[in-house]
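fold-stage: in
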Amino acid sequence: MDQTQIDALRAQPVPAFSHLIDGKHVAASDGGTMDIKSPIDGQVFTTTAKGTVADMQAAITSARAAFEDGRWAGQSPAARKKVLMKWADLIEANALELAVLGVRDNGTEINMAIKAEPGSAAGTIRYYAEALDKIYGEIAPTSSDVLGMIHKEPVGVVGAIIPWNFPMMIGAWKLGPALAMGNSVVLKPAETASLSLMRMCDLAHEAGLPAGVLNAVTGEGAVVGEAMGLSMDIDVLVFTGSGGTGRRLMEYAARSNMKRVYLELGGKSPNIIFADAPNLDEAAKVAAGGIFRNAGQVCVAGSRLLVEASIHDDFVAAVAKATSMMRVGDPLDMSTAIGAVNSEVQLRQNLGFVDTAVSEGGEIVLGGQRILQETGGYYMAPTIVTGVTPEATLTQKEVFGPVLGVTPFTTDDEAVRIANATVYGLAGAVWTSNLSRAHRMVRSVRTGVMHVNTYGGADGTVPLGGVGQSGNGSDKSLHAIEKYINLKTAWIKL
């Protein structure tokens, strides 16, 4: 990857995108389209189909037919593996094109996007392709005159609603295990970042995935997302996004066929810094990256910095220094460390949180304002706010932007109380040289993921899931497969 290649791809016009239903590109049933603005410059650079309820129902009908006739579920594990492996290869072969398209759509800095999007997606698809022929049924321990068999069967039709921050990566977390187990899938990408994921679906068909097994409908969540949630023909619904949408999806499931719903809903992850951290300078650099990469638009971002009082001022200064070295700008420039905020709506929301933090007694140490407005794009200075209490809005509400709240503590117990003082429980970290303290913190802080002397970096071999209002179920690892299978007992009298 070099800047010349990136610039050449940026210059290419992007054709209009349409739905993918039954293996064909299909316009919206009423002809509707949505303009796609790039957060880089605020300009419209293509359109997508604006889905209707009828469009979503057509996609679900296609997926149901594909599942019932066994064109994918009925194939041998070896045959499914071959297709998924080829799909992963095609994603890798087209990685730079996919990454640049995605950056134009959602604003992630290219150095992060190339690894986190096509790189991660290919690895995830390949991981589940390798796993699918190693998932066995079970024989129960019974008396000698009975055979108890436990079969693992695909659930049927999976509905997957994907967010805008990492559409390919998170899309692959759902698609990989769902397709590996023989299910059919209907995707609903985010309105503001669907292009790279839609292109990835095209590559699946190029790899040999049968028509109808993977369908994708673009459009507004309040229309096509609701239609998916209320469908009587979706067996499992998986979603990554906001808590408010997650609640509605659970309500839709209750109002329809009581489909299983698995939710990953973000968090307010605490990054806890003790004075005995093995390397405070390193901790400061990692803390800055842990909140400000991708402009803070990361579900596991370390958005709350809890610092032992004896080092508070010096450590905050070190984080501010590390942050000031991170260049904000054009996300397709390889020298950029922090890209654009996804949309103008999100940018306004971020700035509103900063205003609220100041009104509640917080002090801005760095940033706090929109920048690079002359570009037409949506850029925000990375922002550090001190004096944030456990009760403050900046502690309790997810910003999903480049805003870091800092809170001091004096004892281990106080650190745990502050860390657990929200409704969320997705991720967290502790920095300490004390092994016993590290283990106590891992046990005591209520999260699905806990880092020790690092932040981020976990790969596909370990699960990602939350507790509390951060959701349920897990993405990644072999545990994710559990969402996409049914257990069936065969009780056989011998």
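fold-stage: in (second)
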Amino acid sequence: MSTPPLTDCVKANIEAYFNDLDGTEPANMHDMLTRAVEKPLLEVVMARAQQNQSRAAQWLGLNRNTLRKKLLEHGLLDG
């Protein structure tokens, strides 16, 4: 059995989020979703890159300083 595409998983979870709101208006969804996806993405990429920030930044298409800033924001790096 194959895993559903990432976009299908995201869509299903967003639909579930709206269902859980039960008619309440959502707020700041873009920021919430970005933060929810960004941290696990950084965790997995850093692990796969064996904590090499330059390699991880290259894989992510980010400047190394931007990656470092994001790692700090998510508490994935000691200040």
